[in-house]
Structure prediction request, 484 residues.
Amino acid sequence: MRFPVKPLKLALVYAFVASTLLVPTTSALAQSATGADGLDTALAVIPGSFEFTLNQGDSVVSESLYVYEVGGRSINFWTYNSSYWLDLDTMSASPLYTPRLLFVSILTDTLAPGTYTDTIIIWASEASNSPLLLPVTLTVEGGDCTVATQPASFHFWLAPGEIQYDSLYVYEINNQFTSFIHFNGSDWLAVDPLGPTVNPVPKILPIIVDSDSLLPGTYVDTIFIFPDTDAAVVAPFPPVAVPVILTVEGDSATELVVYPTSFDLTMPPGGLIIDTVFHVWEAHGQNVIFWFSNHSLWLTLPPVFNLVTPDSVPFTVHEDTLPAGIYYDTIVVETGEQPSNSPVLIPVKLTVGGGGYVVATQPSSFHFQLMPGEVRFDSLYVYETHGASIPCAFYNHEPWLQIYGTWGPLLMTPTTLTLAVGDSLPAPGTYADTIFIVPEGDTTMFPPVAVPVALTVHPPGPVVKAVPDHFQFSVSPGDTLNGI
Prediction:
């Protein structure tokens, strides 16, 4: 229970939930009831249920829930649910009033992988289809835990008696929470903290390589990453082996090393910017001067000429002038030291999306039939058929059709639009409008989508009523009722 209400009301709500084994369908969410004014009074909601699929450890995911009375009236209501991972933003003990847009939040921080269910209960004393039951299903993924490292291996070149420092980044590729221990066998390789200390991911492990007392030659060790099997709540993962090679030599030649060794970037059209970085060092720990260059205008390097190893170089990729397609450039890293492996080449591939997106809607059209003074709400689901998240916008023409997006007229697929019909109904007759879904920014991203909307406004007519509006009999077997 989220808010205190009168014990009798709460008992009625939970008695109703306990007595039914059926979850109401979407059509049942707006069954009509007769209020004191003789007009239909019923609650309705958009959407009629929720299904969430999240990764383990996702903090908060929010969706909107629109509660309204089908005739457009303002009636008070309360909301309830039972699970701690499902949260509604109704932070007051006072009743809420229709129409009302609520926000439903999901928190998965402490949930193990699996499927969870709860029910949002909406109760209103003035609606006889109360309470409404909205099933909520949450699937927490994360059964497959995979730990990786950056880099995946090491190769050090040291002179006798030389010491070099580095680091190993350990992480889980799906951002799941787990912990690990690590081991290695050689005295010349020290990974801090030493020994089987439990470390949560992500974690940066400092590494020290010391060639003291080592003769020239090649030495090999392995850093093993194992799951912390003593922690029952931590997801297991296959062990990871990180090879470490040490070459101890006398006079060392200059050798530039870059990381990453290549870039493969993908961007949607629309003038977005990617800021990234590459690292340059000398394989034997020497301080040497280096410089860099490239030739494409969409890849911008900093305006400096000479840097000293080790150092990191930021650069920017911006595709505001590029149509959809694939583009290539090369970052050239050079040094004047001899002998050396200069220049070192870093290939850069840029894929600009566009033209291949297909946007669709559910439903593909609408037909509303209203009486004068009536207001109707509905929803339009907009999505990219391959699951891509792309920017788009919407518009229509007629004032009797109002459309509301979560963040205004600009959208990122997938999204749900709320439609309100009847705010300013025209005279009785048949009318038409069209909802257009168009690309935002690059007009070649996808073909515009048109959703036809038809409206029939019926003329006012006689209202037929029956008194009483229902009968209820209680008889024993064999009894006969006469004179009703």
Notes: Helices lie at 7-19. DSSP finds one helix and 36 strands in the chain.
